[in-house]
Specification:
By secondary structure, the chain is α/β, with parallel strands linked by helices. The protein has two domains: 200 residues, NAD(P)-binding Rossmann-like Domain (Rossmann fold), CATH 3.40.50; 88 residues, UDP-galactose 4-epimerase, domain 1 (Alpha-Beta Complex), CATH 3.90.25.10. The chain has ten helices and 13 strands. The relative contact order is 0.13. Bound molecules: NADP nicotinamide-adenine-dinucleotide phosphate (NAP) and ligand F7E.
Length: 332
């Protein structure tokens, strides 16, 4: 890409799992990348440490609209990816109001700042399969009705509809990707996949003995984060803004994930896993399974990393991290 044609992208949530992979992808494509980080007493840039000097960081918080007005006016972005959120479902039960402010109303703040400063930019909203919740049909597709089961999912449903509303009201290029669970070695340690692979590595290395988990029967459509950020980018390269379901079209239980992860390092999970009701949720999402055919047909998007490889890659990465090798590696 020539300097004149170089596009600018703003990523909220750049310090998170997806933000860091999306930044990798956009830099590879020649974009100027501006990452929004919130002020913390200790910087939290571990996932983007390898990008130091390659991305520009700007301070902003989803609770504060003026920060986005300023960032957009200064950088005049071509594309805005809103990935920031309070994204952990259990925390949303304990902090429902904060989750609503950040994960729900935060989307309106970013959209409103965009409408006022750069309405011709293209906007991506990180919607979630959690919105399907107590599913009304399987597999879930773009037309499936939502039945959210947590304050997080309710907030995401607001974010989803406010994005649609700005598209319809102001003719803005604003779209949502309804992404099913996606994981990687950069996944936050409290999410079940990374909690499992971290524990497997520790048990294998003699650093821990047991792993306490909640509902082993919950089923998720798990894919790889590196594949999913590609879908986000593709969604902003279309002629018209549209929403897409992004998933693998396969579903597996937490129990299957556990079996594979322990088995990969030659351990019997039954000797180490303890089911602890403390990790049950007030309302559970029992089964998620995507129908990603619209993304395949329209975007030409297909996932490259399958379930088994994802589990093994995450276990290997945690073993490497704990034995002193590279702490973070590319997912795909
Ligand atoms: P993540 O790792 O939890 O990252 C969340 C990001 O949001 C972090 O950079 C965090 O910053 C930032 N953030 C939180 N509160 C903020 C605030 N008040 N102001 C500004 N930034 C704030 O999440 P992820 O897994 O990358 O997911 C990315 C997005 O996709 C999220 O919106 C999530 O809800 C959604 N999503 C995720 C999945 C999935 O399976 N991963 C599936 C569907 C949708 P700090 O580093 O400072 O905490
Ligand atoms: O739970 C069960 C738990 O926390 C998955 C977020 O990225 O994906 C994520 O939300 C399942 C649930 O992810 C433990 O009950 C059992 O059924 O890894 P999770 P999530 O809630 O599906 C969606 C798409 C998002 O949008 C969210 O931002 O695993 N489970 N035992 C457990 N879960 C956790 N965390 N810890 C356990 O010990």
């Amino acid at each position: 890409m020539t300097q004149a044609a170089r596009k600018t992208a703003v990523i909220t949530g750049i310090t998170g799992q997806d933000g860091s992979y999306l930044a990798d992808l956009l830099l590879e494509q020649g974009y100027k990348v501006v990452g929004v980080v919130r002020r913390l007493s200790t910087p939290n840039t571990e996932r983007i440490a390898h990008l130091e000097g390659k991305v520009e960081l700007a301070q902003g918080d989803l609770l504060d609209q003026s920060s986005f007005t300023e960032i957009f006016a200064k950088h005049k972005p071509d594309e805005i990816y809103n990935l920031a959120a309070q994204s952990f479902v259990p925390t949303s039960f304990g902090q429902p109001l904060l989750t609503g402010e950040v994960t729900g109303l935060g989307v309106a703040r970013v959209l409103e700042a965009m409408r006022l400063t750069c309405p011709k930019a293209r906007f991506y909203q990180a919607s979630s399969s959690e919105m399907y919740g107590k599913v009304v049909e399987t597999p879930q597709r773009e037309t499936t009705r939502f039945h959210p089961r947590s304050p997080y999912a309710v907030a995401k449903a607001y974010g989803h509809y406010i994005t649609l509303n700005y598209r319809e009201s102001y003719d803005m290029y604003a779209c949502s990707g309804i992404l099913f669970n996606h994981e990687s070695p950069r996944r936050g340690i409290e999410f079940v996949t990374r909690k499992i692979t971290d524990a497997v590595a520790k048990i294998k290395l003699g650093l821990a003995k047991e792993l306490r988990l909640g509902n082993l029967e919950a089923r998720r459509d798990w894919g790889c984060a590196g594949d999913y950020v590609r879908a986000m980018w593709l969604m902003l390269q279309q002629d018209e803004a549209e929403d897409f379901v992004v998933g693998t079209g396969e579903t597996h239980s937490v129990r299957e994930f556990v079996e594979l992860a322990f088995g990969h390092v030659g351990l019997d999970w039954k000797r180490h896993v303890i089911v602890d009701p403390a990790f049950y949720r007030p309302a559970e999402v029992d089964l998620l399974l995507s129908d990603p055919s619209h993304a395949k047909n329209k975007l030409g998007w297909v996932p490259e990393v399958g379930f088994e490889n994802l589990v093994k890659m995450m276990v290997d990465a945690d073993v490497e991290r704990l034995t002193g090798k590279s702490p973070i590696r590319r997912a795909a």
